[in-house]
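Tokens for L-ribulose-5-phosphate 3-epimerase. Go.
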Amino acid sequence: MKSPIGLYEKAIPLQVPLTQKLTLCQQLGFDYLQLSIDENPHRLQRLAWDRSQRQQLVNFLFAHKIRIQSLCVSANRQYPLGSPTDSIRRQGRNILQKAIDLAADLGARNILISGYDVFQAPKTILTRENYLESLQICADYAAQQEVMLSIETMDDSFAKNISVIQKLISQIASPWLKIYLDLGNLTAWEENNVGSEIERGIGQITEIHFKDARYVSRDGQGQFRNVPYGQGDVDFDGCMKLLHRLNYQGPWVIERWAQVHEPYQEQIITAKNFLLSYLNRYFSN
């Protein structure tokens, strides 16, 4: 049995209805769609779906032989779990807990959560403590629903590699908190020893975002999004050979962001073929 391949929802334009996104996902040969819950009101509203709406979507998934296997909850950019403001922090936890409920109802197994205490704001001992407190509350809630939470290696220094995420996880008493590997984000921080980091965390990696990126050292900021595959700094040959040696058997997700007026379906196909070329080279036996 081969590892499933998913598609990040934002690879398809926002205005495309969710059912059409799922149909396209199935037609293009993906095993599942990774649903986005960001700060966009249209996507946040999904957390308020009633039982009937959730049942209709589950029926659609079964009828069309496609899945929503994981959720990417990035709404905590606006409502960070480590915010020094109590009301914002509570709202951030509420969003994540509602996402856990949604995942349980849809049959999604994993939730990608943001690996930072606050977003584009001063980081302090307090914001880190607030983040850990919120993380424990949400991990406890996830345990009750048997839904995995996975902290992503980020485009933010707070969780720029697996080692620092493991330090965070070590503070939380829960088996329902793991690591989400983003190959692009991990690579972009040039000081990271990518191979050693993956070796260190292989037993905790639940899912992998497959994307390219450019080193932060190039311009002080790097490029974490929309780097054409093969034109960035990710050593795909090295990473894929390493992950095969370490017997990674989990899913892969093509992470892209649809650009205005671009032929997004062609871009998705190109990205999928790029991934398949490496899977066929290193994971075919």
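DSSP finds ten helices and eight strands in the chain.
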